[in-house]
Amino acid sequence: xxxxxxxxxxxxxxxxxxxxxxxxxxxxxxxxxxxxxxxxxxxxxxxxxxxxxxxxxxxxxxxxxxxxxxxxxxxxxxxxxxxxxxxxxxxxxxxxxxxxxxxxxxxxxxxxxxxxxxxxxxxxxxxxxxxxxxxxxxxxxxxxxxxxxxxxxxxxxxxxxxxxxxxxxxxxxxxxxxxxxxxxxxxxxxxxxxxxxxxxxxxxxxxxxxxxxxxxxxxxxxxxxxxxxxx
Length: 231
What we know:
Elements: H1 24-39, H2 64-69, E1 71-73, E2 83-85, E3 88-91, H3 93-102, H4 116-128, E4 138-142, H5 150-153, H6 155-163, E5 168-174, E6 179-186, E7 192-195, E8 202-205, H7 207-213, E9 215-217, E10 220-230
Helix pairs in contact: 1-3, 1-4, 3-4
């Protein structure tokens, strides 16, 4: 499951595709965080809770069937790739828990976007369940409005992440001026696979394409201006 989220085509709700229009940050953080835990089995945090009464569970925690089958939502706003059943729409449990615990409106599961702090909190939450944890170090590198390409502004720390094949949240600045979070997955050859949680688009690029000259994806042309990652 952790090796290539692009293979997750049949599961509903979509585990690796954003379940709401503004949840790219939550879907990307989930993918990066779960991969990190797969590489570091000492982190066993889960949102699964066997308590039958939802009132007895911590915020965002779900039953075992909900973890794999999705959580019923009464809020239809911004739903993407909806999983509809007789009793309503179901959304991915992890994305929902991330938004409720790391989002700007704590406790709510609405279609809320996430900034840099929310993305870093989301990584901490997925891996440890604790937004104030000291067990991992989370970093943000680069800026939305920097005139200097990320590859030139921060060549050493960026190069380390690529060399170590550390998955990252990449923030895609499109020609239209819109920004969008994606997953960046470096390989052993020094290239980087981009996975887009919006539509599942997946392609391999060179670091120069992603972080300096720009690239073409299903959302158009753009460049990765800044990233979040677990050190």
